Amino acid sequence: MIYEFQGYTPVVHESSFVHPLAAVTGNVIIGKNCYIGPGAAIRGDWGQIILEDGVNVQENCTVHMFPGKSITLKESAHVGHGAIIHGANLGKNCLIGMNTVIMDDAEIGDESIVGAMAFVKAETKIPQRSLVVGNPAKVVKQVSDEMLAWKTKGTQLYQKLPADCYESLREVVPLREVPKDLPTQEEAYKTLRDTFKK
């Protein structure tokens, strides 16, 4: 669902995928290889929202701001299910955990990881490569090279997802029973804990 608002029409690069059950409104610019999941709302009615190349905004996320503000989600920013980004700017290759809330004029540094259900207060400045958790959110340590590599691999899956959706996503009538030859899906990615188990 792509909506013009007060003369502003969203701009979406042809390589990006906006799910039909997402809503993108007004002054929104979406770069290359971005994924916008079902239930996401990116509402550029009161200011501009820029998603640079390779950003993903997953299911049931909200991206919005106070009137007159504009925000940027920089290249390869990764916004987990149910997160709210309200008037905040996200650095390159950062990860925003599921159901996190990031408030107005907050700045998340490049390559930072914000844990699930964190609450980042307005005007908070998170330095580059910080691991952030809690309510209110606090920096607890630096993101290691191993953690960053794990995050980057997960984001690469989402950067491939738009092409996969264009190739195979289609509305269908459901089956009424499980097929006997239903294939098992491959394990393409492990949790952080499983990735570093000795």
UniProtKB/TrEMBL annotation:
CDD domains documented for this protein: LbH_paaY_like (cd04745)
Keywords, in A-Z order: Transferase
The organism of origin for this protein: Winogradskyella pelagia
Matches recorded under SUPFAM superfamilies: Trimeric LpxA-like enzymes
Keyword Transferase belongs to the record: yes
InterPro entries the record matches: Hexapep, Transf_Hexapept/Carb_Anhydrase, Trimer_LpxA-like_sf
Designated name of the protein: Transferase hexapeptide repeat family protein
Domain of life: Bacteria
Positions of transmembrane segments: none
A molecular function GO annotation: transferase activity
